[in-house]
Amino acid sequence: MEILSLLDHYSNTKIDSHFRIVSIAVQRAKHLLQGAPKVSQRPFAKETCRAIHEVIHGDVDFAVGTEARLFKEANERAQTNEQELPPSEENLTPNTIFPQSTSS
Description:
Elements: H1 18-33, H2 47-56, H3 65-84
């Protein structure tokens, strides 16, 4: 089965196109390659396959549209303020993926 045909088999209201699956999975794969914790315990040969599986099955939180823009702006403000404050675990933000495409 083609991986992008999985959109038809899983109904996630935030995933509205094949492009969105790819966009979110690319960012998730980058996070995995940088050492982010794996959500799925299934064995995968590549991190890209794991990322697509996690996105399609709803194991990864992500924001789209206006919600993504608001999170991104808040994250940028937090990073600006973080430069002024000493780092602490309380200032960490959740591991949310923000797709580059912010069209609703």
